[in-house]
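Intended use. Records like the one below are meant for learning the mapping from a protein sequence to its folded structure. Do not use them to infer anything beyond what is encoded.
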Amino acid sequence: MIVLVVAILAGLIVAVILFMLGYIRILGSHSEQRTAIESAALAAAKDLSRIVVEDPNFGLISLSDAAPVGTNTSAGDRYFMPVHGINTLLGTIRLDLIVADQLNDPVMKEFIDRDYDNAMQAKDRLVTALESAVSGGSGAGSEPRDKDGVIVDPYDSAVKAYKSNVVRQTNNSKFVEGSLKLSLGCIDGGGSTNIPIPKPDTLSSVSSSQKIGNFYKSYTNIPFGDKNFVFAGIAEGATIVDNNKFVKTLGSLPYFIPSIVRAEGDQMISATDGTNVHRGVQHAAACAQPFNVYDPKPAPGILSVSFPDGRPPEIASLGSMWIEPQFLSPSKDTQILTPLGGDYPGGGGILAPNSWSSGAGGGGTGTTPVALIWSSSFYDWLRRGGTRVDINSVKAAIAAPFPTMVGANRGHSNLFGFNADGTVRTGQVSIQPVPFMTVSENQFLAVSKGALISSEPVKYDLYVRDQVNVRGRTNGGRHGGEPLDNPVYAAALAAGTAGTGGTYGGTVSWTPSGMSLLGILAIQGNPWGGGLLGIIPSGVAILGPYGLITLIYPPTTPNWVIGPDNDFGQGIVPATPVTNFTTGPAGGAARPTYTTNGTDIDVRFRKQIPILAAPPPLTVLAGPRYKLLEVGSSTGP
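Structure written out for the chain above:
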């Protein structure tokens, strides 16, 4: 009996051990299948973040930001374009709405409303591309691509990732071909994004339930004013998220961007308990969230308010541009123009009427108040700062008087940019009327003759060059709405310290090329009315009704400089220098203004100096004083 009992017990023990081993193998295979399906979900999520879509209003968009390094993003100037993450676009618009509200600027709000409507269309365009990618619905030639032009296939990447995680603990296991499925949806309750809430927190209008840390919470409506903002589930890196919280729709939200990808797959399992072979299908599912490489925008660009002929006392700060009564009047002769067919001047472009309009007043030509044009251009500069802009710093920069490092009666430009923390950086640079700035193809130029009659009393014409008004390769011209290369202004801004003050540096002086001269007569102001023929020691200057005519001495070999009534230098002999856009190499290159600030907006005041004609004998009339500028001198007029 003892032998029999021992034998029976031994058999039972062996059977239990074999069963336990088989069960452990099945559990192990299930764990490995979990690893495999999570790998598949992560692979698909990473691919979704790579898909780039061309939008006519914003340029290249994606789930993730990308610096201008993609070889398939070249603009007409052969420089690469940046890619804008959809969450970044939404966060920027929301922040700018807060700034416009703080400034009580209805014109800014109107243009932000337009961008918001365009953003809703852009997110729909992106969602369509994402859904097509996970379903494999893209036809030949229309496959989704990344910034380098490489075809992106999330399904194929998911299958390869799954198969690379082979289930090894069973005697026989096999992936069920065709069983892997991908679907897009959301996470109920949301999670953290990497889009920072506006600074300061007291102005952000974000409650504790709408943020995680200092970042917006995804799949949660975070409205401002009458606008709804729902951020997609995208974070710093691709991560696994709770599959039990996955939903395909969120009816409680006004809209959502389904960025969470769910992967499901089957594995055929064969296992033995020593006697019998057990076969079955194991099903597994996992969800992953795509990544967003948040763009720090190291050099968003410069807003400059320039006074080449000295500053009128009425314009003492950025804030003056909103409140000057003459800028609120629609009676000024104002033209809003766009260079077509190339940059202007010097790039082959011609100026054509712009369809710019604002419901707050003005229709593009003749009746548009300067203050409206200023609001539009200020917003174009502000939005390039992205989601990091410090609201209080912007308000302080607007209220602060212009710096005084350069005298108000001397030619100078006041510069504004952004520090890495979103605070406003201020600089100042000495300038002369030359060189002139070009205007980018398809961008924005406003010319308002006699826009300001100062207390001097002197009339000022106003020129607004907006290089970043229209974004993207589709409508933004050969430079895609990117800033103008301007190393002099960039150096002057970099010399400043943080905040709205700082140190200032840099000068711009013009020396005609290809001539051996003793000097050149420099004139403060562009005298577009009246005329003067004056005797200058060793030289002659004529200030005519069409602009500046200067004889560069010695008079025995005269060279005439003739300037028409504009701020572009056409018809001047010899030709004046122009600050132009550069062109990238044949194979493309990273855009230099991504890391070095270029000019976004330049608001430029040109002084009119009416001078009576001088009867014979020729004498220098009383009035403006002129200073002889030696060639090579950095002293301005």
